[in-house]
């Protein structure tokens, strides 16, 4: 089993193994990076914000699939989607003032 020690936490797949031992069927959400993360839109309130990180250009493209609000942000190599989202929210509320 490769999954046993990822950082300090017990991973989802380990939990599945434990559950199977008790013959319980429990659906456990597994977080994978490939699934696009959706964030709440500050403009329309829907969870329809998608963030694309462009690591080559140190840019993040933020776009709402519902109302179409979008922004480009400059990021660093360490910026994650959630960080870019935070920046976007900051920018958004700055513009509101
Ligand atoms: Zn929106």
Could you characterize what this model shows?
This protein has 2 domains: 1-31, no CATH class; 32-96, N-terminal domain of TfIIb, CATH 2.20.25.190. It has a 4-stranded antiparallel β-sheet, covered by helices on one side. The chain starts with 11 loop residues before the first helix and ends with a helix. The chain has helices at residues 12-21, 81-96; strands at 38-40, 47-54, 59-64, 70-74. A hairpin with a 4-residue loop joins strand 2 and strand 3. With 97 residues, it is α+β, with helices and mostly antiparallel strands. It is 27% helix and 23% strand. Zinc ion binds next to loops. Zinc ion binds at residues 41, 43-44, 46, 48, 64, 66-67, 69.
Name a few traits of the molecule.
alpha+beta; 2 helices; N-terminal domain of TfIIb; binds zinc ion
Strand content: 15-25%
Give the name of the CATH architecture of the largest domain.
Single Sheet
Task: Please tell me how large the radius of gyration is.
Answer: 18 Å
Helix and strand composition category: alpha+beta
The strand order across the widest sheet is 1-2-3-4
List the helices and strands and how they pair.
Layout: H1 12-21, E1 38-40, E2 47-54, E3 59-64, E4 70-74, H2 81-96
Antiparallel strand pairs: 1-2, 2-3, 3-4
The structure holds zinc ion.
């Amino acid at each position: 089993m490769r999954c046993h020690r990822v950082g300090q936490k017990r991973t989802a797949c380990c939990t599945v193994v434990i559950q199977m031992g008790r013959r319980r069927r429990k659906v456990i959400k597994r977080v994978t990076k490939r699934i696009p993360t959706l964030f709440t839109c500050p403009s329309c309130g829907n969870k329809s914000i998608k963030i694309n990180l462009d690591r080559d250009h140190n840019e993040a493209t933020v776009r709402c699939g519902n109302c179409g609000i979008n922004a480009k942000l400059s990021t660093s190599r360490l910026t994650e989607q959630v960080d870019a989202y935070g920046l976007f929210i900051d920018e958004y509320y700055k513009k509101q003032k």
